[in-house]
Amino acid sequence: MSTVQPASSLPVPYKTRKQSQPKYARSNAPIVPPGSVTGHSLALVIAIMGFLASITACGVYVVFNAANVWTNRISAEITIQVQPRADSSSDDTAEIVQFLKGQNGIARVTPFSQEQSLKLVEPWIGRSEVLKSFAIPKLIAVQIDMSSPPDIATLKTVLESKFPGALLDDHGLWRNEIRRLTRLLEIGGIGMLFLMAMATAAVIVAAATSALASNREIVSVLNLVGAEEKFIARQFETHFVKVGVRAGIFGAGLAGLLFFCLPYITEGISTSATSAAEIRRLVGAGTLDIGGYAVLVVVVVAVALICKLTSRYGVRRILNNQNI
Asked: Of the residues 3, 152, 295, 309, which has the maximum number of CB atoms within 10 A of its CB?
């Protein structure tokens, strides 16, 4: 006679036993927690460095473009000074104008009246009726056709030999001064960017050392289970690159916003509309074009590369020296 066993005493199938076992979630937590001190403090420092680097790089870019505009305008125009001669009562200005109009490569010839010439010197010596009695040289502005410019040296020689008292100024001195000033600003900007890069690299090395020290046990366990130094270094490298990219984008974006608002800031701090116009004439509107925003992207990429290379070097150097 067979007996019926209670359900509780029946053997549990293997599949049922496997499903009844507790499940353990697989942990993919990074070695360096994102919310650690190397995440927040380092991100703040890199964001500040990225902002300063973006301001410096874009400032040099804006000044370089403004200098190019000035140089092109100066190169497209020459000035003829007609000195008054004591031995001659005739005025050669009309003949000089006709001579210049007949030369190849001359787009426009504009003689200045005495009143127009006096207005040019008013910013330096002021307005006075006494100046009208002075023998001020007459000026002739000559616009050059840049598509087929004339030979300035030959034109200068012919003009000054044909008309005694006429002097041709090709503004070469001003062009050289602008180029020299622009070159100095570029060198200064590159030097500042280099110092910022060195400071950022030093901060990342210090942060990597701190991260390794605070995660000593984790790294030791990874070494015991056979993890290579390349794998460990890659974990730290990934962490610092993510921090650097986020902070670099924030700093560069803040700098781009500042340049976008710069024309409004200039108008707000200017004492008059004339002073604001003079500032725009000197350095342009101050806004960034496509090239300027490309400079911001380059700054972000440079910050990411600095974080990547510096963290890789710092972590591997510490692991090789067995400091942990």
From this structure: 295
Q: How far apart are CA 310 and CA 211, in angstroms?
A: 14
Phi, psi of 66 (to 5 degrees): -65, -40
In angstroms, the CA 85 to CA 155 distance is: 22
Highest mean pLDDT among 49-63, 67-81, 147-161: 49-63
- Could you tell me the pTM of the whole model? 0.69
Q: Alpha helices, DSSP H only, in 140-215?
A: 152-162, 172-214
Residue type, 247: A
d(C-alpha 51, C-alpha 252), whole Å: 5
In tens, the pLDDT along 118-156 reads 777 666 666 666 666 666 778 888 888 888 888 888 888
- Strand order through the sheet with 106-111: 106-111, 138-144, 77-82, 166-169
Instruction: For the chain, give the number of residues.
Output: 324
Tell me the average pLDDT across 235-257.
89
Cβ atoms of residues 83 and 93 within 8 Å: no
* DSSP calls for 39-86: HHHHHHHHHHHHHHHHHHHHHHHHHHHHHHHHHHHHHTEEEEEE---T
286: left (phi over 0), alpha (psi -120 to 50) or beta: left
The whole-number pLDDT of residue 253 equals: 93
